[in-house]
Amino acid sequence: MASGVSTITGMSDYICRINTLLYPKKTTHFQVVDLFAGCGGLALGFEAQGFLTHGYEADANACATYEKNLVGECTKIFLEKDTEIEPAPVVIGGPPCQPFSVIGNQLGLKDSRDGFPVFISMIERIKPEIWLFENVRGLLYQSKGYFEEIIQAFKALGYIVEYQLINAINYGVPQNRERVIVVGHRGEFRLPLKERFTAGDALVDMLYLTPPESKFLTPNMDRYIARYEKASYCVRPRDLHLTEPARTLTCRNLAGATSDMQRILLPDGRRRRLLLREAARLQSFPDNFEFCGGETSRFNQIGNAVPPMLAYYLAGSVYEYLTSTKRYIHSEIASHSLPNQLYLPLKTHQYELA
């Protein structure tokens, strides 16, 4: 696991990395369409690899955050199957995941929030060279039948479709965050594993701060959490453990005073909820990335985002694909009769998932 503190800056290698790598660069001519773009976590990773993005997002605050921090524009719009969007060789996105989330109702196709019919329609009309999306792990389990329908719909459009359940801890993000990555292409796509970091690496210069906006847990909250953890057979309190990656950050455990809220144990015995910048660090947003809207909206944008560091490595693999010459003809693509697992060397880990 990578770790260490710079003797020059006093910051960890992780903090230096997100603040030096994750900023927009105009170094390629490749355009990217970003569907259901959120606040731009996925787009930031692509712009940091030199792509120019154009986001489409329904939430006004998220759209404002996107435009405040990225070179590309963000069109505020509720996407529908016939929405007109600009063509591009790359399409990325995060179709709404509530129908498949482990903590949602898991209604899949019957859920009006399902964004996959829109995403499939866009791929059919734009015909990009490569596309990818990120979604919750429930898509592979509780909604496996619908997931297979989605895969077959994409394959019918003439793409090799590969997918994998990955954990963001293997891609430079100090957080246990399992997500499904699905990629459609007509050649070969590789996503190598990267270094790991801990929550302590991310927050080394913020630990134990108590700024005016700090929200401390009350004695009643402490007792409620203790009962919840006992009933859940937790081996130890679910506070932030600095020698390990953080638990999965979600809208629920960031924005709400819930039993599983993200919190830090202070040296004086008090516990406080995560600060906004701490949450952003654990999601791998650089320190100069500014979020728009009220507190709840900003926490929700962070919890819903694709970690930019993960997006950065995805974008690097997309760039390698676009600049490669390996492409399969139609008959070779058709021979891939089943969905393929991405070529990802898997690693096991002992950390607790959310």
Describe the structure in your own words.
This protein is an alpha/beta fold and 354 residues long. The chain has two domains: 13-196 and 306-341, Rossmann fold (3-Layer(aba) Sandwich); 202-302, DNA Methylase, Chain A, domain 2 (Alpha-Beta Complex), CATH 3.90.120. It has twelve helices and ten strands. Strands 3-2-1-4-5-7-6-10 form an eight-stranded mixed sheet. The model is unreliable at 344-354 (pLDDT under 50).
Text of the CATH class of the largest domain: Alpha Beta
Note the beta-strand portion: 5-15%
Q: Which value, in Å, is the CA radius of gyration?
A: 20 Å
What is the overall silhouette? globular
Task: Classify the secondary structure makeup into a structural class.
Answer: alpha/beta
User: What's the helix-strand series?
Assistant: HEHEHEEHEHEEHHHEEHHHHE
Helix content: 25-40%
CATH homologous superfamily of the largest domain - what is it?
Vaccinia Virus protein VP39
Number of strands: 10
CATH fold topology of the largest domain: Rossmann fold
Any idea how many domains? 2
Count of separate DSSP helical elements = 12
* Largest beta sheet: strand ordering: 3-2-1-4-5-7-6-10
Averaging pLDDT over every residue, what do you get? 88
Poorly predicted segments: 344-354
Largest sheet at a glance? 8 strands, mixed
Distance between the termini: 20 Å
Q: Architecture of the largest domain, according to CATH?
A: 3-Layer(aba) Sandwich
